[in-house]
Design a protein that fits this description.
single chain, 326 residues, alpha/beta, ten-stranded mixed beta sheet, four-stranded parallel beta sheet, 11 helices, globular, binds threonylcarbamoyladenylate, binds magnesium ion
Length: 326
Amino acid sequence: MARIISIDGERREAVDAAIGVLSKARPVAIPTETVYGLAADATDPAAITSIYETKGRPRFNPLICHMADLDMAERYAIFDPISRRLAERFWPGPLTLVLALRPDSAIHPLATAGLDTVGIRVPKGFAGELIRAFGRPLAAPSANSSGRISPTTAQHVEADLGSRIDLIIDGGPCPVGVESTILKVEDGRIRLLRPGGVPAEAIEEATGLTVERTKAAGTAAIEAPGMLASHYAPNAHVRLDATNVVPGEALIRFGDRPVDGMTEAAAVFELSPTGDLGEAAANLFGLLKKADQTGAAGIAVTPIPDHGLGEAINDRLKRAAAPRNA
Ligand code: TXA
Ligand code: MG
């Protein structure tokens, strides 16, 4: 079973223990502001292989490479002016930029699935400190088995991957709760490959440019294969935009408006009674897991506004509701 070390105690001890595992080309689960990541040395093929194996992740699905800061990122990728502006404004933070790889980049092709681009982000807090101390970028997908809901607590990681990894660093619940926003700048235009912790409105405000959503669902899927339909699959059937509860269903509610049939629900979970999208994002994955654990056949979710962080929340809910064979 994995050892769990909290960062509340001796912070240096947690960093040292993580570096010990990373130095053996093994993955370590670490907290980030978005979700827990399964991190390994992005320059070491054996380390990257162990990430794919631990998650059961298809190798055509590239990993995000995490850096300590923009200076470090520039050693591995080429920044166009818009990407640089975005990095300066939003790093450290929940933003991933897909950039051209430098020809001399030390990032191993296994991390990028052989693409000539690389997804880079600079995380806040412990993850950033760890990368600075380790001195090399960390490839880190979310610390869950492929296809499952991303973990937002160390306990989620333990329940899923605890028997397959050596170490989990416990940083408490992730404050953002949904994964990073993924952007790609092309010919001076900003494409949204995945909505996430930085709302599109904030990107538009920072750049004065329109964030372009990919036209067809399939287009993003080709470029960000992890974004394929059924990616956050609970066992229960998930029903979105619900205005009532069918007997036997669990209910996940946004806001405090009464819902028809609510008193008959198998269980009721509150994303945010006050209708705060940030709070709802932070609670989303944990409540999906809890609702699923009730054993209810279905989970009804009330409508969630599609602006700000609501876009990322609705994106993840659609994936949770998608047919499994899609
Ligand atoms: O918040 C996050 O982004 C979390 C934390 C741990 O940093 N990480 C995360 O990683 O969500 P993962 O592997 O679960 O999702 C990474 C996504 C995948 O959909 C992948 O296809 C896409 O990023 N991606 C990575 N590199 C890419 C590239 N070069 N081009 C296009 N998409 C890429
Ligand atoms: Mg993931």
